[in-house]
Amino acid sequence: MHRKHEIGHYVAEMQSSRTLHIPVLQTTVMNVFQPKHGETVLDVTLGLGGHAHTFLESVGEAGRLIGLDADQRNLEVARKNLSEFSDRTTLMHANFSQLSELNLPRVDILFADLGLSSPHLDDPARGFSFRSDGPLDLRFDQSRGVTAMHLIEMSDEAELATIFRSYGELYMQARRLASTLAGTQIATTAQLRTLIEELFGFRAKAILPLVFQALRIAVNDELTALDALLHVGPSLLKKGGRMGIISYHSLEDRPVKHTFRSLTTPLKDPITGKISQDAAFRLLTPKALVPSAQEMADNPRSRSAKFRALQFRL
Ligand SMILES: C[S@@+](CC[C@H](N)C(=O)[O-])C[C@H]1O[C@@H](n2cnc3c(N)ncnc32)[C@H](O)[C@@H]1O
Q1: pTM for this one?
Q2: Are residues 112 and 10 in the same domain?
Q3: How far apart are CA 238 and CA 7, in angstroms?
Q4: pLDDT tens by residue, 215-248
Q5: Boundaries of domain holding 97
Q6: Could you tell me if the CB of 97 is within 6 A of ligand 1?
Q7: Element containing residue 52 per DSSP (H, E)
Q8: CATH of the domain at 101
Q9: Ligand 1 mutation pick, 95, 96, 117, max ligand atoms within 8 A of CB
Q10: Using an 8 Å Cβ cutoff, are 20 and 116 in contact?
Q11: Mutual angle of helices 204-219 and 157-168, in 10-degree steps
């Protein structure tokens, strides 16, 4: 297991936050999808619209893009960044966990670039960064749900230990941290950081990103949303349509890999072992695609990225 992949976006935070605006794996994603004139793209993690901009250029005037983001503020920035294409974009404030309820048409390309975006780390008021002080929020969608502060307050010791174990892959530290946090009110990122530093001393540096990752996944119910995307997404593809996901840690990549494998594996006759039914989908990425050494050097956030894609057969 690659440590860098596990701690995802927070590696970048520890190393740099200068170059986070470059869309990750941009060229790779476009090479795999090969967007064509007139195609319809569904980008379920619009962010600031970086990938979406390239999709819109590629599909031309007859093409269109539907974009979702759970974060209202990112959505508004994306709306500005994509304003030259406004006649062929539909942007919605929505979580991709609701994909089945949005009455979306079938699309040629469905793309997700999971997790947080640079403004989440750069704005201390969002509470995603352990490097700056702000309210312990960590919600993508500030119009609903509970903040990390409330989650900690509402959860008992066992629930907190499960969060740190399951989503931060912390073990001994999970119990110790949970027993310290249970029943307390931690209002700010700096308070949480200080507490972790006091508890774990020199090991706090390695533990901090995992604690923030765990809280972020729990607050945004990220793995449930990913399950919904993996379940509903393939059914939204037109014949020949492609679906691809960039993940940033193993908790995200594992379900993507398994779902894509099972959708692309043909049925075999249990007696003869011969293929009895071809799979409806084919893998476009037999192995996950990762950034080049140059991209990793240019954009530290890309270091943990893995891209997998499949196609609904014609
Ligand atoms: C890595 S950024 C996407 C960056 C984008 N590809 C770009 O080029 O600008 C991920 C975005 O997905 C959003 N997001 C995360 N989980 C989501 C979910 N379940 N539903 C909708 N949006 C989500 C975040 O708010 C963030 O803006």
Answers
A1: 0.93
A2: yes
A3: 35
A4: 999 999 999 999 999 999 999 999 999 999 999 9
A5: 3-118+223-312
A6: yes
A7: helix 50-59
A8: 3.40.50.150
A9: 117
A10: no
A11: 100
